[in-house]
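FW: tagging you since you asked about this chain on Friday. Here's the raw sequence from the shared folder, copied in full. Didn't touch anything.
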Amino acid sequence: MTRSGHEYLEALRDGREIWLDGERIKDVTTHPAFRATAASFAGLYDLAHDSPHTPLLVQGGVHRAYAVPRSYEDLVARRRAYKVWAEAGYGFLGRTPDYMASGAAGFAALPGVFTTDGFDGAANALAYHRRLAEGDLHCAFTLTDPASGQGEDDLTVRVVAERDDGIVVRGAKTIGTGAVFADEILVGTIEPLAPEHTARALSFSIRADTPGLRLISRTSYEAGARSVFDQPLSARYDENDAMLVCEDVFVPWERVLTYRDVDATAAMWWRTPAYLNFVHQSATRFWTKLEFLTGLAILVARSNGTDGVPAVTQAIGRLLGMVAQAKAFVLAAEASWEPVDEGRGGVRPGQEISFAQRIMAGELYPRAVQDIKLLAGGAIIQQPASGRDLLHPELGPLVHRYFRTPGHPAEDRLKLLKLAWDALGSEFAGRHEQYERFYQGAPHVYLTMQTWAGAADDCTSLAQACLDGYDLGTTR
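HL: got it, structure written out here
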């Protein structure tokens, strides 16, 4: 059964070791750097647990993202569930619980990938999927290695001891997005490893309160927000990114998915539907985020009184075209679905379109932000420092008088402009622009992958057919 938001928050009070600004955080549900975002995640659970959206979000007693899709219709139903949660955070919560839930469903669709000569993790992968689904857990992951050497001082997570009941790991992983808010954290690697790196070729999932596990948080934008009025996105939707540090952490065998196998550790993402499921979820969220930003641009143009200017109208048309592009990639990936394991593992979104979405999103988001900044102009810079200025007995009348525009009282206009700045120009906004560029991998990785996932042969065949259709002797 799905959890309520209250049950989710209670589960976070488990003594996990989180560090921020030299302070160990005792409770993320009450600390001012995390509590509002934790409440936003709890709100998602409430939407699934008991709301008018429950029938759309829940299938067979578990969140729909955990279901292995068996048809095109199942993919559409899953996307509609993704959309509900994406809209709840306006696209700014990237790693909501349905993200890794869809990945776990990908593992369950093709568990044979986890069976190797040296270690059989198939049963563990199925148990992992079942544990997350039945517990309605929020699982994050961290797959990126820190800069490291190649000797005994290697910094990345690796096996340092093997026991009858499990393994001991040491080292770090970076960019654990949402990890401080998760019940479990999957640790692994998505990049290809060299054959000799078997000590690092492993993946496992552990509880966030596991002894020896530390999470070192980046700056909290939520903590820096003065109020919801002044920073409405930073104050509520800062999903955080943390470095995971393992200091001789014990991992039971039943929580190990791949072990000392370079090929299986990569194949769990690329041969199962897990990664394509990620793209399906994130592409739906990206589409939603562009909808929000474009709506914001239209409201700002109206507030500035420029929405009738031809150049502004054209710019808004361009933004609406970007929204349509983002939507088209989602629908096309679903329509080009492919069978998994000849249908035994259900279906997955089309790989070629899904991979192409990564290119589109990374290139489109900075352009959209830049276009909206141009529409907003200097108005988003010149704002009172705080919404409290509106209430000041001496300053308030001046603010109300000089910050209004026809049909837009000062309070309404400043509320809009502060939202626009938080989405476009704040430190929170800067993190999101970088996130959209790189969270699906570096360009040199996904552009290279597109060359073998795309229809290169079809393209060259068509061009070659034209060349073959004439020679020096051909007449008109």
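FW: The longest helix spans residues 274-304.
HL: agreed, and The mean pLDDT is 94.
FW: great, closing this out.
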